[in-house]
Design goal:
With 221 residues, this protein is mainly β. 10% of the residues lie in helices and 57% in strands. InterPro entries: Beta-barrel_OMP_2, OMP/PagP_B-barrel.
């Protein structure tokens, strides 16, 4: 599933880049759009969430790791961008993401479904190359917090209880594509939870649980 996101991202970038590099059209679209100190936009996209488990070796003596069944989720949100200089921007990208993960022990066919609706708030630094015709590649990184609106942290009867608040670091890459009326940006980003997300689980071999995610977003500014 992560490979699918990567393929879609590079196909988008390739098609637009080929059109700009090898067409005879050298007209710059929106030549002053990056000169604004503040700019705004929105994004939509897809996600794939995973769990990384930390096992108790004394309990999990057979090395039977839990099997994760991932699905494709959906992202939507807003963007606030502060231009620091020609190659550096500070970005706030609050949004909402929806996802479902299933996991099960390898010896059973029964799965436990984990539904999550996250309010995701990243603060990112965007490092861009110089603009070439109508595209500009960049890398991005920073920290974020996620509020799990579906958290069952206080439900003592739940089999697996997840915390409401998690903290993450993020790193990714993308390309700004300058179209006649707006800037379109496909980006691919990894999101990695720092703190232990688990309150309690029915699986005694699990000591800690951390979310791992890939976001494929399409931004319009």
């Amino acid at each position: 599933m992560k490979n699918f996101f990567i393929i879609i991202f590079f196909l988008c970038c390739y098609q637009f880049s080929q059109a700009q590099l090898f067409s005879g059209d050298q007209v710059l679209n929106n030549p002053n759009i990056d000169q604004q100190r503040w700019s705004w936009g929105y994004f939509i996209g897809f996600n794939s969430y995973d769990f990384q488990f930390k096992y108790d070796d004394e309990v999990n003596t057979n090395g039977n790791d839990l099997i994760i069944e991932k699905t494709i989720g959906f992202n939507v949100g807003l963007i606030g961008n502060l231009k620091l200089n020609n190659n550096l921007d500070l970005r706030l990208e609050p949004g909402v993401s929806f996802n479902t993960r299933n996991f099960r022990p390898p010896s059973t066919i029964e799965t436990e479904e984990i539904n999550a609706t996250y309010v995701h708030i990243p603060l990112l630094l965007k490092f861009s190359a110089n603009r070439l015709n109508n595209f500009k590649p960049f890398v991005v990184g920073g920290l974020s917090t996620s509020i799990n609106l579906s958290s069952n942290e206080n439900n003592e009867d739940a089999a697996t209880r997840l915390k409401t608040n998690t903290y993450n670091y993020e790193i990714g890459l993308g390309i700004d594509l300058y179209l006649p009326y707006f800037k379109f940006t496909p980006s691919l980003r990894g999101v990695f939870t720092i703190n232990n997300e688990m309150v309690r689980t029915t699986y005694p071999e699990v000591n800690a649980m951390h979310s791992r995610a890939v976001f494929l977003n399409f931004t319009f500014q």
